[in-house]
């Protein structure tokens, strides 16, 4: 398998943030690249354009299947004294397949310090069962994923709600916003726990907000809570929260998922 750190180190970087890569088969999710990797590669290119401010938010549109040779080209839409907006387009030989908008923002003094929802009280990762059985998406072999609460896919649960421990198996992965984005999308959509049999799904959009510019954790573990808040007419709208091993919030997000079943 191609480790995440190897993939990032092997990127062909051009001028103005342009990035070229070939997606290995072991990072595929069905007929497309794992969404977290698609977003992470786009962020890698965008960060080349804004190196003096941390990323604060990512808005990702998964337009079509990503695979094989890809080219990512960032464009600075606006740059101010304390913020910047960068668009990153990922194209393959078939055209535009992903478009990302990244918001960067410098720290500023503020009296406000409100934290998001408290981290769930769950068992430690080594006390939680593996999330996947022997059958899992190809890309998931790169992660250690444990079920800390809720139900696994196709278990016929009353509601889509799952709490999951996530860890990169790649010990060489450096913890930064790009790596965090690469792991945050690893759990399957929460609505799948309400299904009773397999059916195709497809992420359409993903919004993630970074709650820290200092990505740290212990032993590589992060705790994710995914909840399907509305499922109707073949679509699921879900929320996502992510904490580090110390219980500190690091990311919140939303996702729109197409459900074909």
Describe this structure in words.
There is one protein chain. With 261 residues, the chain is mainly beta. It has one domain (4-106, 122-259): Beta Barrel (Porin), CATH 2.40.160.210. It contains three helices and 14 strands. A hairpin with a 3-residue loop joins strand 6 and strand 7. The mean pLDDT is 94.
Short characterization:
The chain is mainly β and 261 residues long. 10% of the residues lie in helices and 43% in strands.
The CATH topology is Porin
Please state the structural category: mainly beta
Radius of gyration, in Å, reads 18 Å
Low-confidence parts lasting 5 or more residues at pLDDT below 50? none
Q: Which overall shape is indicated by the principal axes computed on the Cα atoms? A: globular
Helical residues, percent: 10-25%
The number of E-state strands comes to 14
